[in-house]
Design goal:
Blueprint lengths: L7 E5 L4 H11 L7 E3 L11 H7 L2 E5 H13 L2
Parallel strand pairs: 1-3, 2-3
């Protein structure tokens, strides 16, 4: 079921995930936004949608993580 959230999801190439987080932190007052870098199951960084929606205003992840998570989830349904 859909999870209500006001979080923004940024999907980018793996090589620039940290750059996105650094730029957000550089241009936003400290503590104003909660930013989460999501690395996925392979990096033992699994979180449910509920956990991410409630703990972050911005979630940064990569195309590779989403692709991996999609197939992991589809295999377990």
């Amino acid at each position: 079921a859909p999870v209500p959230s006001f979080a923004t999801l940024i999907i980018c190439p793996s090589a620039i995930m940290h750059q996105w987080v650094d730029e957000i932190n550089k241009h936003v007052n400290p503590g104003f936004l909660r930013v989460r870098l999501y690395r996925g199951i392979r990096e033992r960084d699994y979180a449910t949608v509920d956990e991410m929606a409630s703990s972050a205003d911005i979630v940064v992840t990569s195309y590779d993580v989403l692709n991996s998570e999609f197939y992991h989830r589809a295999a377990n349904i």
